[in-house]
Amino acid sequence: MLLDSILGMFSMDMGIDLGTCSTLVCVRDKGIVLNEPSVVAVRKGTNIVLNDGEAVGLVAREMLGKTPGSISAIRPLKDGVISDFEVTEAMLSYFIRKVHGRGGLVRPRVVIAVPSGITAVERRAVVDSAERAGARKVYLVDEPMAAGIGAGLPITEPTASMIVDIGGGTTEVAIMSLADIATAESIRIGGDDMDEAVINHLKKTYNLLIGEARAEKVKIAIGSAAPLDEELTMEIAGRDTISGLPRKIVITSEEIREALKDPITAIIDAVTTTLEKAEPELAADLIENGIHVCGGGSCLRGLDIVLNNATGLKVHTVEDPLSCVARGTSVYLENLEIWKDTMDHSERGWE
């Protein structure tokens, strides 16, 4: 460990929020240094990344849904876990190289946030991918813990802190106390499912087919979980499934809210289930401490209202909710010795 600490002085160690939609990298004293889509462009039928391995992130996202037959723009993570090992390795390698560059003399230590509900095999896959991508040593931390740390919650104290992290592929709900998770729910439903719900609604109601990127724009522009003071409309273009020709329609925030009902209900159910499993003393703490929400999905209009209605608890959106987990991995890395003593379970014995 002494040698590792010395090596750490000469490497640019980093914390990574390896998300289904986006990957964020945080470096000590520099904050978020990379925020790019978790997308890779490869030659179809292979795992060869285009442009000498540079068609990753922002470059690759521009290709989603617009590639010719010889190219595939893919997202190598699904529901918060690795679905394509080789492509994930190539993506991580690109991001680590981009951040590390010439900033360190030795390979970096890396802390990666992972969904709390993934299996040991899925955890092992993350570690292997990061090591092959250039990490000297890999530490895993559960996403709810990273989010709690990044949000500045008093998770090491004998009081309940509750976090709801709504990402692209998963929603993590946890009640934490004394630097550990007291009870948690991890469901493989998130922002991607909301986008899919919008796509299905337009296809079923209007015979209009749109892509994931356009569905996300609809969700952001007029989506909501609760009724709005002033309901919104939006013009959306796509391909008519009957004629096959391009067509435009006007949609309303009311119908999109109805389309989003199922994924939002699933998230609320995960929150209430977690509360029902909590010890009475921890549940009592939450009357004062409330619920903290983060992740891209927490930005959906009215989500705090429906969570408050379902639980009766105050709901707070953390500062800069999209980078909360990444910031937590960086703080974890900065205080590695402290956290390793109290959170050995997050590493699962892999060093």
Question: Helix share of residues?
Answer: 25-40%
Figure out the total of helices.
14
Classify the oligomer: single chain
Strand content: 15-25%
Q: Give the strand line-up of the largest sheet.
A: 3-2-1-8-9
**Inertia-based shape:** flat
The CATH architecture name of the largest domain reads 2-Layer Sandwich
Instruction: Please report the distance between the alpha carbons of the first and last residues.
Output: 11 Å
Q: Supply the CATH class of the largest domain.
A: Alpha Beta
Query: Mean pLDDT score, rounded?
Result: 89
Question: What is the H level of CATH, i.e. the homologous superfamily of the largest domain?
Answer: ATPase, nucleotide binding domain
The Rg value, from CA coordinates, equals: 21 Å
How would you characterize the overall build of this protein?
The protein is of the alpha/beta class. The longest helix has 17 residues, at 261-277. Helix 4 (85-100) packs across helix 5 (120-132), helix 6 packs across helix 13 and helix 10 (261-277) crosses helix 12 (303-311). Mean pLDDT is 89; it is low at 344-351. A hairpin with a 2-residue loop joins strand 6 and strand 7 (81-82). A five-stranded mixed beta sheet has the order 3-2-1-8-9, with helices on both faces. 40% of the residues lie in helices and 25% in strands. The protein has three domains: 2-36 and 78-146 and 324-346, Nucleotidyltransferase, domain 5, CATH 3.30.420; 39-74, no CATH class; 157-318, Nucleotidyltransferase, domain 5 (2-Layer Sandwich), CATH 3.30.420. It has helices at 2-8, 50-53, 58-61, 85-100, 120-132, 143-150, 191-206, 212-222, 253-259, 261-277, 280-289, 303-311, 324-334, 336-342; strands spanning 14-18, 22-27, 31-37, 40-43, 71-74, 77-78, 81-82, 109-114, 137-142, 161-166, 171-177, 180-187, 208-209, 233-240, 246-252, 291-294, 315-317. It is flat and about 60 Å long.
